[in-house]
Amino acid sequence: MATMKDIASYVGVSVSTVSRVLNNSAPVDQETREKINQAILKLGYRPNVMAKALKEGKSKTIAFMIPNLENPIYPTLAMEAEEEARKRGYYCLISHTREDLKREEDYVNKLIPQVDGFLFSTGLTGHLSKSIQKLKTMQIPVVCLMRETEDTEDTFISNAVQGGYMATKYLIEHGYKEIVTLTGRSELALYQFRLDGYKKALAEAHIPYRRELVWNCIEEGLERAQNVVSRKIKDGYTPKAIFAESDPLAFDAIIALNRKGYQVPDDISVVGFDNVHMSENYGLTTIEQPLEEMARDAVNHLIDLIESKDRNSTPITIYPTELVERNSVRGVKDSVDRNA
What we know:
By secondary structure, the chain is of the alpha/beta class. It is built from 14 helices and 14 strands. β11 (269-274), α12 and β12 (285-288) form a beta-alpha-beta unit.
């Protein structure tokens, strides 16, 4: 592999001149610059990025640990995080952990020498993951996005309780008293908080909480609301209103209902949580999280930690949620009138 010395010898300039062109650190006349760039291409020179990073003490790279790329939330967060990092002069490496803590640990151990900090949507919430504990012990900056950990520092999430409450209250206001909620992995705090919001709205309306109306949609570690909803209907229970605690759960539920011959909202009303891009295609009334804003703020905070000598942590940042009304909910009176 060609070296800077090879480039300098080929063009007939000093190594320092080649270095100035590569790093754009000082003016070099245009003719010499072009000759050096042509020599780089011809000789196949590749800069040793890691050596440079070690010398400067920074790689200008962050890693984003994403749990599930099939969930449309995370591609949205990843694109925004990558774009914001580039604006700050950083690269963003995406690592797909597939909700696997061992895979998460493997990625972290591999990337520690290569990146300046980590952005986490960890597969474990409510506790400190081993990976995050290790990074904090090593004083490597860590910021959590979408999912929080036990210490709730340097974390950017939406108000899940508020969102669950708003979704459930909206269905109650449309005349529903028997509301099924579709939930996900119990170890994820965000689902517990959304369920807390559901319970709060029921209590406020003096509607008894019924455990049998909480349908856990995790099968073999994956969210499979289609299977769960289909099985419940087959067993003889057809819901009239559903609060899905994520938009992907809502999409799955709608598909299952359609396959069983039910239409949304004519037969069954559905509210989701996220407001991902596909929600509009489904006409889904849902709870909006400011995903792009959360990703931008998390990345900027991480880079600020990387570039700060003090590296002071900040408390959890919680963003308000909003209800986006579309056409997946029909009032009880409207349904009765239609079927009269």
